[in-house]
Write a structure and sequence with these properties.
By secondary structure, this protein is of the alpha+beta class. It contains 9 helices and 8 strands. It binds adenosine-2'-monophosphate. Adenosine-2'-monophosphate (2AM) binds next to strand 2 and helix 9.
Length: 223
């Protein structure tokens, strides 16, 4: 008889502690509330609604994920490429259940996703799988993504619009970073939290003046 393989989780990542989750949700919701009242945002409202003039309540527009986290490796219970290798890495095994402080340096909003960019430290980058940044990236975007520093895709999904899967947040973030690198920034607005930049097709990037930190635990989710 075949020996049973050890089971692999859905994904590994840094999970925000419950009290941190509440704090981050409140701060980021306040930003959404302000964003949809800005004239600059209203000018591009049709990219969210499909119609000019129509209003959008961004707090309703994005559905909240169950538990805030920053995915390191999506394993899909072992079906994803490199899942087993990742789970067996010494650094992964040693890091399970350990505490990490994540630093959120920017927020992104697109018609599909709402997310927080995470700036990984050298230590945290050791848990970032090689090649993770470019996984599932459209061929046209690959060269720009390959030119970005490792870990550029690291993020916390804060919400997705109806019918959009969470994996989209990282892809939206990479697209924004690539556009920035090409100097394709549009309108800029100074906000209390930082500088908001428009990057065409309903994409917005808020560079935070002060990073928002969050205490997390590195672990896996089986659900
Ligand atoms: P996220 O990290 O952008 O939020 C479970 O589905 C988790 O794994 C989600 O948090 C999701 O997106 C992430 N995820 C799902 N599919 C993925 C993929 N193909 N590549 C990377 N991450 C993925």
């Amino acid at each position: 008889t075949k020996q049973k393989e050890p089971e692999l989780p859905l994904f590994f990542g840094w999970f925000l502690l419950p009290e941190e989750e509440e704090r981050i949700k409140c701060a980021t919701m306040d930003f959404l509330k302000t964003l949809d009242t800005l004239e600059a945002f209203k000018e591009h409202i049709s990219e969210f609604t499909g119609e000019a003039e129509k209003e959008v309540d961004l707090e309703q527009y994005f559905q909240n994920p169950l538990q805030l986290h920053c995915t390191t490796k999506f394993c899909d219970y072992g079906k994803a490429e490199g899942a087993k290798e990742y789970a067996e890495l010494q650094v992964v095994k040693e890091s399970l259940a350990k505490s990490y402080e994540l630093s959120v340096t920017a927020l992104i909003v697109t018609p599909r996703t709402f997310g927080a960019r995470v700036a990984l430290t050298e230590t945290q980058l050791k848990l970032w799988p090689e090649g993770a940044d470019k996984e599932g990236v459209a061929p046209a975007l690959l060269p720009s993504v390959e030119a970005l520093p490792a870990g550029s895709r690291a993020h916390v999904t804060l919400g997705c619009s109806a019918g959009v899967e969470e994996v989209q947040t990282g892809l939206d973030l990479l697209e924004i970073l690539a556009l920035q690198k090409e100097g394709k920034e549009g309108t800029q607005v100074e906000m209390d939290l930082g500088t908001l930049t428009y990057l065409s097709e309903g994409r917005w990037f808020l560079a935070l003046r002060e990073p928002i930190t969050a205490d997390t635990t590195f672990t896996f989710a089986a659900l």
